[in-house]
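INTERNAL TRANSFER SHEET
From: sequence group
To: structure group
Subject: Cyclic GMP-AMP synthase

Please process the attached sequence and return the structure record in the designated field. Keep the field labels unchanged so the import script can parse them.
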Amino acid sequence: MQQVLKRLRLRSEEISAAARAVNALVEQLQRALQASEFCGASVLRSGSYYERVKISAPNEFDVMFKMELPRIQLEEYSDSGAFYYVKFKRNPKGNPLSKFVEDEVLSASGVLAKFRKIIKDEIEKIKKIVMQRKVPGSPAVTLVIKEPKEISVDIILALESRSSWPPKTLEGLPVGEWLGRKVRTKLRQQPFYLVPKHAKERQSFQEETWRLSFSHIEKDILNNHGNSKSCCETDGEKCCRKDCLKLMKYLLEQLKKKFEKREELSKFCSYHVKTAFLHLCVKYPRDSFWKPEDLHRCFDDCVGFFLDRLKEEELKHFFIPEVNLFSPEYINKRSKTFLEKQIEEERNNGFPIFSEF
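Return from structure group:
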């Protein structure tokens, strides 16, 4: 496992080159947004690179442009827990997003279309950057930097709300025994975000909904992950939590690569791995469980826990427990059974896939 982790470690010169290219792009987009309806937008970096669990190469970045909203009212969509209509309690003329309000609802599709157009117009001025085709239901505008190396950057607009988190998050974020009840209270005092992600409605999408996002909280947790406050700090004891997460992400990544021509694994993503991992950290909160010398056993526990989630067809959203990420409405049983079989085969044979590709 240590040899695999060495291969996955990012090289500092690659990180520096990628970060320079992404930062230059983000600065240019921010200048363009300042001259638009999104003039109040500021940058919120999230995703695996900023959580320091990126593997293989610094070739994928997630960047949020956040806009703080005045007083808003959320109306839950179809008892979903995760998707909401956004309404303004007041609609002052000074609100730059007021032009996107239709029948009192802030139009997610209208906001996203305008946001996408501004970015498209701006990157047409830049050589060696292309925009990917829009993915139905996705909140991201995906740009690909072609040189010096190909880097994919997901740009997402997020609405920031500083009001109380929605009621269905009340039992979520179960980190009290792991990080401490005070830490949980402090995390819940942070703002939450809404991204223009459309809820699935049979074979189509409800295009006016916004989805809750807690990626900033996930980043905080992963960067301050110890039961003791000094875990993995310069002078503190080390743990293997992040190494386990990297190996789990790599396992799924390799399986998706191996079976890329089959559709069974298309719905699975690193967010499923991360969510299961966070639940396992809650189950085993003590740093003593995650000693670096116990990496093999800890990784096997991660694999076993993920297999259990697949078998039981239940993976609770870490912040919204009513949402089951492995429910049939999101992923069919055939796909879950297929992934379960492939992981078990790898586990029984010492993970030969780690040496492939």
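Handover comment: The chain has a mean pLDDT of 89. The chain has two domains: 10-165+192-214, 225-357.
Transfer complete.
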